[in-house]
Amino acid sequence: MSYEEDNNSHWERLRKGDKPALFALYNSTYSHLLRFGLKICGNDELVKDCITQLFLQLWSKHRQLPPVTNVPAYLFTSLKRQLLDQLAYQSKIHAAIHRDTDKDPGVELSYEEIIIQVQHDEEMKRRLQQALKTLTPRQIELVQLKFFEGLTYEQIAAQTSQTVKTAYNTIYDAIKALRKMLK
Asked: How many domains is the chain built from?
């Protein structure tokens, strides 16, 4: 069997809940993923953490995984997305920590100020989760398709058998409700 056939076989077995297939896929793709990740980000610890996180997510969601014809491409894309998310998050934390230092570069935020900022971010996440619970199942589905999966209104309409206008209005109403809840 070729490298690609092996990975496709591991993928299909993983989708069925075969834990050894997860480890086999990890072992056969790890070095490729590591090299790929290091081209995106020079931080080898971050890349290794993201690879590990990727495989943990694959296992936790193995029942929802789609059939894939090019497993390495799927893994590379997933790793890239994970790395970019982590880099954006780190950039946000860095900006929060150094927000006040623009006025006076010699001043850094204290440990307490950093903790307060992190707690504020956690509070916002909690409030958003609570606000999402007030939406209808259809609104939640469409918001997820639009903002978490990045689909266009046309793609959402096609996937959910709705008109584009209905998809747009449903998402608009959901965002309006979320804004009201988060104020």
From this structure: 2
Q: Give the CATH number of the domain where residue 153 resides.
A: 1.10.10.10
User: Same domain for 172 and 105?
Assistant: no
Structure tokens at 97: 């920590």
CB neighbourhood size of 44 (10 A): 11
In which band, very low, low, confident or very high, does the pLDDT at 4 lie, cut at 50, 70 and 90? Answer: low
Instruction: Single out the residue in 73, 94, 109 at which a domain terminates.
Output: 109
**Using an 8 Å Cβ cutoff, are 179 and 171 in contact?**
no
Contacts of 51 (CB under 8 A, 6+ apart): 30, 33, 34, 37, 79
H helices present in 41-163, as ranges: 44-60, 71-97, 111-133, 137-143, 153-160
Shared-domain flag, residues 33 and 116 = no
Q: Are 178 and 128 in contact (CB under 8 A)?
A: yes
Q: How many angstroms separate the CA atoms of 63 and 146, rounded?
A: 22
pTM beyond 0.70: the answer is no
Structure tokens at 99: 């927000």
Host domain of residue 35: 1-109
Say which residue, 70 or 147, is predicted with more confidence: 70
Secondary element (H or E) of residue 161: none
